[in-house]
Design brief:
The protein is of the alpha/beta class. The protein has 6 helices and 13 strands.
Length: about 250
């Protein structure tokens, strides 16, 4: 029997009845055509997982009853990767967030760079954040993670770099660059890595200078120029293979 895994934004506890997010409720009721009493696995994103069952399936409201906490495998990587991703257009950004989650990234910072083409006012940024959070949750449902990657609000690259420059936090700081002097296999073991990736047009020379002043080094994962939706994912996979849990 297939037991769907569903992320629920509110805290969970045995005996509580919770409303499923609209998209998840639509999926279990209209697509899977499940009935009341069908088992579920719910998680809030804090590392815990709960056995539950469908309680009610109204037209616009699907609820589940939490039964008990169950042992949850720890699928988090020992290598904490922060992805500073230049905001990409449309579905490219969704793809990056989805696959970065599957590859075990710990934090994502959407960056507004010198060549970012996506324009976000406060209202659009709020909608994008809600959408991206849903993408992360869906990716965790699929890949078995019980902790959602942290998602920062869209941030200007210069502000992000300034915060990092003033922080003596340990770990490596890397910019993906075909001409970079560093290679994944040659990196010293680290527990944390911050990786900066440009948008469709890449990072400008000014962006690179700002990041270098914040302690970033160039990292090459091959001589070819990768698209923004490929670059970060290729680097994360290589870093996980050499220094993480792959």
């Amino acid at each position: 029997m297939r037991i769907p895994r569903i992320h629920v934004p509110q805290p969970l506890a045995p005996g509580v009845e919770v409303e499923l997010p609209p998209q998840a409720g639509e999926h279990v009721a209209r697509v899977l055509r499940l009935e009341a009493g069908h088992p579920l696995r719910l998680f809030h994103g804090d590392g815990s997982e709960y056995a539950a069952e469908l309680a009610s399936l109204a037209r616009r409201r699907v609820t589940a009853r939490v039964l008990e906490a169950v042992p949850a495998p720890d699928r988090e990587s020992r290598l904490s990767i922060t992805l500073g991703q230049g905001i990409a257009r449309g579905e490219k950004m969704d793809w990056i967030l989805q696959k970065a989650t599957e590859l075990g990234v710990a934090r994502v910072v959407p960056l507004i760079t010198g060549r970012t083409e996506v324009k976000l006012d406060a209202e659009r940024a709020g909608r994008r954040m809600a959408h991206w959070q849903a993408v992360l949750a869906s990716a965790c449902e699929q890949c078995g993670r019980n902790r959602l990657p942290a998602l920062d609000p869209p941030t200007r690259l210069v502000d992000w770099a300034g915060e990092l420059a003033s922080s003596p936090a340990p770990g490596l700081r890397l910019i993906l660059d075909p001409k970079g002097s560093r290679r994944v296999r040659d990196l010293a073991p680290a527990s944390a890595i911050t990786l900066a990736i440009g948008p469709e047009g890449g990072l400008s020379e000014q962006d690179r200078s700002i990041l270098q002043q914040a302690g970033f080094d160039g990292l090459a994962v091959g001589p070819r120029i990768l698209r923004t939706e490929t670059a970060g994912l290729a680097a994360i996979a290589a870093l996980q293979a050499c220094h993480g849990d792959m």
